[in-house]
Amino acid sequence: MLVHALVREDGTVDAGELYTVAGLLGMTDQQVRLCVKRLVAEGRFTHEGRGRKAVLRAVADATGAIAPDAAHVRLAYRQDHGLAPWDGVWHLFAFGVPESERAARDALRDTLLHLGSAPLQGGLYACAHPIEPLVEARAHELGIAAAVTSLTSTDLRVGGVVDPPALAAELWPLDAIAARHDELADFARSCLDRLGRPEPLPSAERLSLAVRLAAAFSYAMTPDPLLPAELLPRDWPGTRARHLMATCWTALAEHPATDDSTPLPRLFALYEDIAG
């Protein structure tokens, strides 16, 4: 997350900036070196130079590893603004993959969960969003497309429960998801308090706040299936938390730094653009 958050518009990361921000976040130089080594080994970045004078360069990646789940974030804000109402359709996915292809089966399951699906029973998942193209593409990639079945329903029943909001409460851990959003909202408020103070905000601290915000946002959003408002309790904390985050992003972008030569992280800028 830290390295990704510091990618600049030209796709590079300044190692000196990386070590400085990492130090503010309580990371040691050794932890940074190990992180960089892993990212280079995974083929996500190339490395030029040595120590704090080095430059990391992001490798082009169609999967969006540098800015993960931008579409997920975009959908969240569209729903928050009432621009993506639910059509009342459940999207169901079933698969039967033999044990000999366990790795592919587990990968497909992880994809379904990542895309906001919930398990109904063994090998059967439900989602409130039309994710069929993404699931089919992943199944083809894994070589198990023939083992996957998809269908839609407007009268899904699980154990006698048919009311959509009641089904959502049964299938997804809404209390745990809400708690993460409450934490995000609390952190966003603390950031706004800091930005509201009259004293200057050093560039390193500004970057540190941006990375912390991105990390807090990711922590709250990663397990969130982004259920439509029609399926959620009233006053859902996710909407409130994302509004506070958007306010933070704008405040950070507009807040003068003592050294304005240091840009905000790319990931932060991307989220700001989507939220706006």
Q: What is this entry, summarized?
A:
The chain is α+β, with helices and mostly antiparallel strands. Helices cover 50% and strands 11% of the residues. A hairpin with a 2-residue loop joins strand 5 and strand 6 (124-127).
Would you give an account of this structure?
This protein is α+β, with helices and mostly antiparallel strands. The protein has three domains: 2-58; 70-82 and 172-275; 90-153, Alpha-Beta Plaits, CATH 3.30.70. It has helices spanning 2-5, 15-24, 29-41, 70-80, 102-114, 132-142, 164-171, 174-195, 203-221, 237-254, 266-275, and strands at residues 12-14, 45-48, 55-58, 90-95, 118-121, 124-127, 148-153. A four-stranded antiparallel beta sheet has the order 5-6-4-7, covered by helices on one side. It has a three-stranded antiparallel beta sheet with strand order 1-3-2. α8 (174-195) packs antiparallel against α9 (203-221). Residues 61-68 have low confidence and may be disordered.
